[in-house]
Known about the structure:
Blueprint: E1 5-9, H1 16-29, E2 33-37, H2 46-52, E3 58-63, E4 72-77
Parallel strand pairs: 1-2
Antiparallel strand pairs: 2-4, 3-4
Amino acid sequence: xxxxxxxxxxxxxxxxxxxxxxxxxxxxxxxxxxxxxxxxxxxxxxxxxxxxxxxxxxxxxxxxxxxxxxxxxxxxxx
Length: 78
């Protein structure tokens, strides 16, 4: 199996409208692994993850920024 990997500079996901746009794109692309940079998210929890990706078996790891930029959110289908 070849996993589908998506890497994207999200440029801020604090806005629910932007998260909805990303969610709709992910629904259509059906990736196995998603890497989002520059998310600008203050808190990452299950509710936020579900608002971004509707994958039933999603797991994730979040690396917060050290300064003004650099956040990385990696999600995958378990």
